[in-house]
Design goal:
The protein is an alpha+beta fold. The protein has a domain at 57-151. The protein has three helices and five strands.
Length: 160
């Protein structure tokens, strides 16, 4: 049998095929690949990015709630003085309810004593879910803290 040369290519031992025909034969190996690629693309790319995009507003909301709670409770403590510890805790609980957060999402950390003339730093720690999927709930938690500093009066505001 003679070997094909030039524009002839060998497909099987018994037939000879032109280069034009061989291009069409090679395209048949990708038939049906879209059926496999679409679920892979949805499962590995679109769904995780969708969950991430849906979770970002929850992260921002929780951070804002923590910042507000820290600022408001610090201001209250500076004005109310040592008697304001219970009131600061109530402010944090009110802010938590106002944002619609589950009870215990915000945790207030305040110094044990107020020293006149020094800075008072209040920290609020918030629990942020890693992902929040509508109709399915949230999973994975992380904590984030917000601090606010106010200067406590030289004369000890709120002291009798």
């Amino acid at each position: 049998m003679r070997r094909a040369s030039g524009w002839l290519a060998r497909r099987r031992t018994s037939e000879l095929v032109s280069p034009r025909q061989s291009r069409h034969l090679d395209q048949g190996t990708e038939r049906g690949s879209a059926i496999l690629e679409l679920p892979i693309m949805l499962g590995l790319i679109l769904i995780p990015f969708g969950i991430l995009i849906l979770s970002i507003p929850t992260w921002i909301e929780r951070q804002t709630a923590a910042r507000d709670a820290a600022a408001e409770s610090a201001r209250y403590l500076v004005v109310a003085g040592p008697q304001g510890f219970e009131g600061a805790t109530q402010i944090v609980a009110d802010i938590e309810r106002g944002y619609g957060l589950p009870a215990g999402s915000l945790r207030l950390e305040i110094p044990s004593e107020l020293v006149p003339g020094q800075a008072l730093t209040v920290r609020v720690v918030v629990v942020i879910p890693a992902a929040d999927i509508p109709l399915m709930g949230s999973f994975g938690d992380t904590t984030w803290s917000a601090e606010h500093t106010e200067r406590y009066s030289d004369y000890g505001a709120g002291t009798p």
